[in-house]
Design a protein that fits this description.
Length: about 150
């Protein structure tokens, strides 16, 4: 009760917390989340996972910053896929049916499930080489009549 009264009267002591021993980590910034490829697969996975969702671990692919999301360690034989050159990586990644496989400097693999481009567009990593297919909207006769009525 005494402490509450001291605060209410504006007389409570103010002791600044010393920075030594503090455990708070500052907010991560996007420019500090670039992936360093000269690491074992477990470290790559932890880096990607640790920056998932904000700010997002990223690398440069085809001159564009691409952010990686949803990583997991892959303990299997190297899957079939289309090679994808990643700036700074000693070995190209593989776009497979399950996602993007990247390699650590120990030869082990990490599977990345989602990629986000600079414009904010997010895709499944397995669809990296898929061309955007524009489909035209086709209306039935009844829907065309309804559209006319609405106009």
């Amino acid at each position: 009760v005494e402490a509450v009264h001291l605060i209410a009267d504006g007389k409570a002591p103010r002791i600044p917390q010393p920075k030594e021993g503090a455990t708070y980590e500052g907010i991560q910034k996007k420019e500090n989340a670039e992936i360093s490829w000269d690491q074992p697969a477990a470290a790559l996975h932890n880096w990607i996972r640790g920056h998932d969702k904000v700010p997002g671990a990223w690398a440069t692919i085809d001159g564009q910053v691409v952010t990686f999301y949803g990583s997991s360690l892959l303990d299997a034989s190297v899957p079939a896929g289309q090679e994808l050159a990643i700036k700074g990586a000693s070995r190209p990644g593989l776009v497979t049916k399950n996602g993007l496989v990247v390699f650590g400097n120990d030869g082990k693999m990490v599977l990345v499930r989602s990629l986000q481009f600079e414009d904010g567009k997010m895709i499944p990593a397995s669809k990296y080489f898929s061309v955007d297919e524009a489909t035209a909207l086709e209306l039935t006769e009844e829907e065309k009549k309804m559209a006319e009525d609405i106009r």
